[in-house]
Structures are given as structure tokens and as C-alpha cells.
Amino acid sequence: MMVRTDNRAANDVRPVKVQWHYLTKQPASVLWQRGTTKVLAAVTEQATKKVTLIGSGLTQVQSDWLQQTLTTLLAPALEKTGLLVSVTVLEDGGSLLAEASNAVFGALQLLPEQFLPNRAAAVTAILTGNETLVDASDTEEAVADSTLLVVTDNQEQILAMTLQGATAVNSSQLNELLLVASQGGTRTAEQIQASYQQAVHPIIQKEHSEMPTIVIATKNPGKAQEFHAMFEKEGIQIKTLLDYPELPEINETGQTFEENARLKADQIAAILQLPVLADDSGLMVDALDGRPGIYSARFAGDHNDAGNNAKLLYELTGVPAEKRTAHFHTTLVFAKPDRPNDDLVVEGSVNGRILGIPRGDNGFGYDPLFYVPELDKSMAELSMAEKNAISHRAKAIENLEPLWRDWLAK
Ligand SMILES: O=c1nc[nH]c2c1ncn2[C@H]1C[C@H](O)[C@@H](COP(=O)(O)OP(=O)(O)OP(=O)(O)O)O1
Ligand SMILES: [Mg+2]
To answer: In what residue span(s) does the Exoribonuclease phosphorolytic domain sit (predicted)?
Structure first.
């Protein structure tokens, strides 16, 4: 038995990480990661009733295959409207075309129009020597005799496929490839679905109509998950702006956290005519005189966690650990429709230190760089429950807790 690069079993697929709505100004985009393969995909409707694909980092043959496959899979929807697809490969860690396809399938789920009736997912299986391995990494791909790419639905049914390789395969080898690939594809479809439900619609799966609902004025899935976890135990379900894709963008033009949170809460409450809770939060670093502060989300230019973290590390180059003190701050504003003078405002914060290298995979934003001395862990090394026991957001919600019921009733 060949040992796989990451000790997986031959029929194991790698976990996926999907950042839904990755681009703020696109209606439907995802950053898709599997292993070290990273692909950014964005889709929008277009007037011409066909699929137009703009690929960067794919070969012409790969782009053509993807465009053709999408055209076939989406044929019913394409009778009504066309689709503009953009695919950017950020890193090729193997199974690139499969993961580019998955990124597009993921992004398609975010469009209001249903393009893909079945949950589609792509995966590769390779034949190397006499072994069949699913979801090949780049080093495994390099030794493959043949590579099969399949697109399946969530029932192990094959929707599309392509076989490549210098060596001929016989029908029993092809059967084996098809079997492991279709299972791997369906497993991938499940992974996509699980991530989608967690991040984009944490509420949908548990829709309890008798539960009171609060709208949180955020598009940040990381925040949304934390609010969901914290309010669920209070018997409250939350909706977020991701549930209202038609709402306009609210510009955070305020000079303080409170002003920005008020802007978000008041405007969304006025449009939805529902009570709305807004969070404006950020990181204040003492050695940077409190920066990035209210500009935390836009520190490196646009709303990009990786860029923001890189910039933070750069600005703190050479600053010793004891001088890297910082705190996270949250201001929450709860607003009722058309009554901005009655806004309820609370705050919370947590102290820590900025690490020299990122640690941990949980959370979002600056979490991998924010060290919590009491727990000897970075925020990104905490489980969500642990973070929600100590975070700035948790503190603010604690402060809101004794107030909001009376406030809402009056
Ligand atoms: O617990 C946290 N752990 C790590 N980083 C955090 C946290 N809380 C806020 N942050 C960072 C992320 C972002 O760079 C900025 C918030 O900016 P902020 O405008 O409040 O949120 P956002 O633009 O991501 O979403 P939205 O305005 O739709 O709520 O601070
Ligand atoms: Mg924001």
C-alpha cells in the first residue's frame, strides 16, 4: 500500500473549507480550499443565455471543459438567463479542476435563481500502479497513470466525467475509479452542504416559528455563527443580512464603533421594519496607538482577513511580546424601526496580545493572531463555546442581556 501524502485512506477525501460570500461586492462568491488548493469563484447572471467563463490559473483545456460542463448541467436554467462565471486559482495543491468546479458549484448556491437542481460536487480519482486513490494531492497526481474526474450529485449519480492519462485503463480499473470517485463526489457534496448550512444559514435548519426572531445587521458569517450560538440558548433565533440579499450596502462612514453600529442598525430596521441588532467591532493595538480600530475590516484596503493579518504582523515587526498588548472591542446597537432616539447601546472588550505567527484555525478575522494569556491560547485555538465565554462580543451580549427584553417591550 502506498502511503498517501497526508496518511489518508485511499478512499478518503480531504476536508473542505469554504468562505461563503467571500467578496463583499459580488452577489455570489466563495473562497474554496481543499488541502492547499485554493480557488476563488464568483457568479452573476447575464443577459446572454449562455455560460461565459473567465478563468485565471486554469489551462485553456480546463476552462473549456468547465464551461462545457456547466453549460450541460445548467441547461434548463440557461433557457431563462445566462451566467457569468469567474474562477481565480490562488494555489494548486492537486485536483485543481475538480476544486475549481466545486468553487463554482458553491457560488451557484448563493444566487437567488436555482441553477443547479441537484447538489453537485466534483472529485478526482487516480490510478497509480495498481492503486486507486480519491481526491489526489499534487504529489499524488504527479505519479498518476490515469486520472478520472467526475461530477456527481448527492446520491452517487454521475453527472459528468473526463478521463485522462498516458496509460490505457481496462474496464475493471475504470469501474474501480468510477466507484471511489462517485463516493468521494457525494461525500464532497455533503461537505459543501454542511458548510453552507453552518455558515450561511445557521438558522434555516432549525426554523422554530414560535421562537422570537432578531435580525443581526451583519454579513460576516463568523459573527453570525457566534450570535447564533449565543442567542440559541436564550430561545431566540437570528436572521442576518445574508438572509436578505436584496438589501443595499450600508457604508460604515462613522468615526466611532457606536456611530457605525447605529448606521447599520437604524437603516436596516427602517427598511425591514423589524428590530435589528448591529455589531461594529475591531481590534485596538496599543503599539499602533489603537489602530486598526474602526478600520479593522478595511485595514489592508478591502475586507480581507489574510491581508489584514499580514499587514498587522508587518506593522508590528520588531515589537517585543510584552509591548504587543491589544484588545478587541464590540459595540452593539439594538434599534427599533423608525425610533433612532431609543437605540439601546452596549459594549464589551477582551484583552490580549498580538502573536508573531498565526495560531489555530477556528474563528475569523484577527483570531489567529490574538493571544489570550489567561487561556494560553490564541482566539483561533478556542472552540466556539470557549470563545463565546470570553470574547468582546460575548461580554457585550452579557451587558445586553438584562436590558433588551424590557427595551423591546416598551
Ligand atoms: O471576534 C473577532 N475575532 C477576530 N476578528 C474580529 C472579531 N470581531 C471583529 N473582528 C475584526 C474582523 C473585521 O476585520 C473587523 C470587524 O469589522 P466590522 O465592520 O465590525 O464587521 P464586518 O465588516 O466583518 O461585518 P459587518 O459590518 O457586516 O457586521 O474586526
Ligand atoms: Mg463592516
So the answer is: 120-183
